[in-house]
């Protein structure tokens, strides 16, 4: 399943007030981080990840690695912030248009 433009716009509006709860630093993305992000996505469905300036990897590569590992959708990469969405199986709170 891919997100339509309308769904991405809706999710961007929902994510606007959120603060990033994960940070990717100089060590980059690792399996433990992906596991924690996947667990957080199951609880929240929508979250932000901040890419710090000392991260050696490109932010688009970081977003793709996290999305692949956590089986999530990239809603937006803006500045050094990545917005991710994954439909929760147990804690569904967001209804997409």
Automatic annotation (TrEMBL):
<protein>
    <submittedName>
        <fullName>Ribosome assembly RNA-binding protein YhbY</fullName>
    </submittedName>
</protein>
């Amino acid at each position: 399943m891919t997100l339509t433009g309308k769904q991405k716009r809706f999710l961007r509006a929902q994510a606007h007030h959120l603060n990033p709860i994960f940070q990717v630093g100089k060590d980059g993305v690792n399996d433990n981080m992906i596991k924690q992000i996947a667990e957080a996505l199951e609880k929240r469905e929508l979250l932000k990840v901040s890419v710090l300036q000392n991260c050696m990897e490109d932010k688009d590569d970081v977003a793709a690695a996290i999305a692949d590992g956590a089986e999530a959708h990239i809603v937006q990469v803006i500045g050094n912030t990545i917005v991710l969405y994954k439909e929760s199986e147990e804690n569904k709170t967001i209804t997409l248009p």
